[in-house]
Design brief:
Elements lengths: L2 H28 L1 H9 L6 E2 L3 H32 L5 H8 L1 H30 L9 E2 H18 L2 H10 L5 H6 L1 H14 L5 H39 L2
Parallel strand pairs: 1-2
Helix pairs in contact: 1-3, 3-5, 5-6, 7-10, 9-10
Amino acid sequence: MNMTEHLTELRNRIIWTAVIFIAFFIIGFVFVKDIYSFFVKDLEFSLHVISPGEIIWIYFTMASVVAIIGTIPFFCLQAWLFVRPGLTPKERKVSLSYIPATFLLFIGGMAFGYYVFVDLILPFLLSLNDGMFNQIFTVDKYFRFLLRITLPFAILFEIPIITMFLTSLGILTPSFMRKTRKYAYLILVIIGTMISPPDFVLQIVVAVPLILLYEISIFLSSFTYRRKQKKHEDFMNNNE
């Protein structure tokens, strides 16, 4: 393909992704009440709205989250189809397996963040009240706080896949990840501190899974790097 044909194909991929996003957005918008009921069914307090804008905000927020989650595998598939002509048959097979892994890790990150929020962070914050204040929780503030916790986890859980991808491109190496391990730990601890309350135990609970993810990423990077090196050696031996 020439440059114009590449741009045309890219445009078509983006358009199809946008169509799928809109479709999932509509589905989410239709089922907002069911989704909302799922998230508030176990709350020990009621949520309130203090302005009409909060009602439409919750509709658009819930629908957007559904659209993002539903569009991720399709977006990854469209990206794979766009780069597929430049890949070998083996590379196509390996890279295609990244798509379900990306989706599952994103869902896993959101689920973990939701568990941390509901079972650890929220009870801790409520315990600080100890009868001092009258608690009034608004829909806007509650769900903004919830998304502030869950979305970073969903993104950070993609680290292993991103690591494998960058290693396969030759941008990242396992030795570099090992050398920068202490700096990565510091960054992950800072992130854990930012998305968790000022309680040492909770910050450890949040930071430890992120550090484990980094160690898993090093292992996967090493695995990908060894396969890449072996492929290069086989290629060189066959051309001697």
